[in-house]
Fold:
Amino acid sequence: MNSWHEYGKSLKLTTHGLLDAKSDFDVEFIRRRLPTEEVPAVENGSSPLSDVAAPPPQEEIIHNLIVSVKAFNTVDGLRRVAHRLTSESSILFIQNGMGIIEEVNEQVFPDPAQRPQYMLGVISHGIYQTKPFNLVHAGHGTTALAILPRNIAEVKPHFESSALYLLRTMTRTPVLAAVGFAPTDLMQLQIEKLAVNAIINPLTAVLGCLNGDLLHRPSISRIIRLLLAEISLVIKSLPELQGVPNVKMRFDIRRLENQVIGIAQKTAANKSSTLQDISQGRLTEIEYITGYLVRRGEEVGIQCILNYMLKHMVKAKERLEGERHGNLLPLEPRNPG
Structure:
């Protein structure tokens, strides 16, 4: 909250060298629970929502919520406001990685009857932060959106009015270049982005290089193909994609490799988010990128040995850099006996 006041209580976005500043926002600060604080006991087997205090009278119901925090902060963040969300509310998840909604269902909204309407978003805009609340829109892209049905078996699913309102508002905002998709189509876009991120993010983090440095290097190209062989096989084996037309062609190794090359060329001068996190001694989202693919592979009987190793190389570097920056305590050495 101090940073918000320090930087003028405004959001500043620079596009093509032009600064656009917006202020007069209503801002709420929700304090993170300290590790030493006890979680309130769950009574009568109720849901984890009891982790959050009952809403004070002055707190309003949240009708639309956009979640864009780091994947590993999602559950904790939603627990802080879950008491203000109803089954008629909508939550739009626009984040890196996959497997987040499954965690939210398990740990925040275990009762399907009480869950808000979920929406998913996949963006290709390039944005980076220069300092708190100061952003640069470096690359124009698109925003793909979908409302997720509560029951995939429904022929004509019911969508909450709050979700329809949010979808309509975002698709009518020109700068977002937002388009609505069917859930199955958006899932494939999300998986494509995940496959690309599962190559660029961990490799640039381990090698300490820019995205473009992955190009035109035979040794790196061989590594990419070996990783994609596992990734392609897992994706084509996912039960939710069985029966979807052109899945085998869409997630073929060569096509995925061309996508990786295309993104690496387009973002050649950029640092991946995983490399940025490691450079600052922060936690990464690798468990929701490579880790997700490894877990899904295990579910369908595929061992992703190379991706598993790469994931742990990133986690090892994450730990080392975190210790150097003082963000993580070093582990005590184990007694060999």
